[in-house]
Amino acid sequence: MKVYLVTGGAGFIGSNFIHYMLKKYNDIFIVNLDHLTYAGNLENLTKIEKYDNYQFVKADISDNEAIKNVFEKHDIDYVVNFAAESHVDRSIQNPDIFVKTNVLGTANLLNAAKDKWELDNGDFQAGKKFIQVSTDEVYGSLGKEGLFSETTPLDPHSPYSSSKASADLIVKSYFDTYKFPVNITRCSNNYGPYQFPEKMIPLVINNCLNLLDIPLYGDGLNVRDWLYVEDHCKAIDLVIQGAAPGEIYNVGGYNEKTNIELVKTIIKYLHDNVNEDITEELITYVQDRKGHDRRYAINSEKITRDLGWKPDVTWESGIRETIKWYLENQAWMENIMNESYKEYYRLTYETK
Ligand code: NAD
Ligand code: DAU
User: Which of 5, 6, 12, 340 to mutate to test the pocket of ligand 1 (most atoms within 8 A of CB)?
Assistant: First the structure.
């Protein structure tokens, strides 16, 4: 039975990944290690929390003792590191925690895995692997043309993307220096169930349902390449099972949308299906994000060629199913709308 240490498994993508893996395989054991920051939510996991082959551990990836203990207690085969501070706007407000968690936390995890998996001759136990879940934001920003490939130079702009790029370089250095078995995945914008409503899609859905202004940064023409979260989970699984150590894989949706197109799509669905008062009048152009990357778009040919991955979910069905999920799970959203969320919202948007 393979043992997976999934870090950040109470967040958006991590929880989707745990659901995906436990549905697909019944001969694996998952240890979900999460610090339960504002973004971590055990409600994302209620369907599987009692499974015999699942265990939750509350810990910080940058806590040396706690991570060592997990490696002592379990014979971990794969580390899948989702744990991170993940929101660009928060990184502009408070960069320090991004360095601590995303850079130092990743280095701490790497060291614990290396100590445990290293043999006396400097080789590593067979079959072990460390997967770093990274982002297309490490490549910076594109103009109207072109796609990011795995050989695009790193040129991150925000404290968030810079911390992720720094972590990528440390992870890569462990392969280059020690031949420690790693893979890095760099994915475009995910969407789907369980996404924290500081991010664009759940924020827009939530504001529409409450007839609140929809804050659109700048001219609304920044472009993101949207990927349904389950397609991302499938890619990570393929990388774990099939990728050679040291390889980096981009994962993208081939699904570019301007922010204004995205917002209008959500408004139209909710106007037609939920409440006629939800209209484009809710759209409010606000001051742009500082250093706002203009366009992200991914070339995923390498993962398709090497591992047979391609996205299965079309934008039309993915966004429809996503909106329906938030409609059917309004209690989940309401539980997040606490004082701390409201304070963050005020701080972020009242000055815009
Ligand atoms: P998220 O913010 O929803 O979840 C992050 C999780 O990490 C939370 O459960 C949080 O509690 C946990 N965490 C934070 N600090 C921790 C610490 N010090 N120790 C242990 N756990 C900690 O993020 P997400 O959107 O699910 O992103 C997951 C990963 O995927 C991140 O590494 C992110 O950089 C990357 N990524 C995200 C996207 C996207 O579109 N959301 C795209 C590409 C890559
Ligand atoms: O590209 C992958 C990245 O996608 C991940 O690495 C990040 O963890 C994830 O948060 C996401 O980053 P973005 O900054 O692209 O996502 P966000 O949902 O914050 O914003 C999407 C776009 O919408 C972006 O151009 C900014 C814009 N936006 C966002 C918010 C929250 C607005 O116009 N208004 C808003 O209120």
Answer: 12
C-beta of residue 47 within 8 angstroms of C-beta of residue 72 = no
| Closest residue by Cα to residue 181 from 189, 194, 172, 193 | 172
pTM, 2 dp: 0.99
Active site residue ranges? 136-137, 160
CA distance 295 to 75: 42
275 CA distance to ligand 1 middle (Å): 33
Q: Tell me the CATH class for 2-257+289-339.
A: alpha beta
* Strand pairing report for 256-258 and 223-225: antiparallel
Computed on alpha carbons and rounded to an integer, the radius of gyration of the chain in Å comes to 20
**Is pLDDT at 81 greater than 80 in this prediction?**
yes
First and final C-alpha spacing in the chain = 52
| Domain boundary assignment for the chain | 2-257+289-339
- The Å distance, Cα 7 to ligand 1 centre, comes to 9
In this predicted model, what pLDDT tens digit does every residue of 101-121 receive, in sequence order? 999 999 999 999 999 999 999
Q: Phi first, then psi: give them for residue 267, nearest 5 degrees.
A: -60, -45
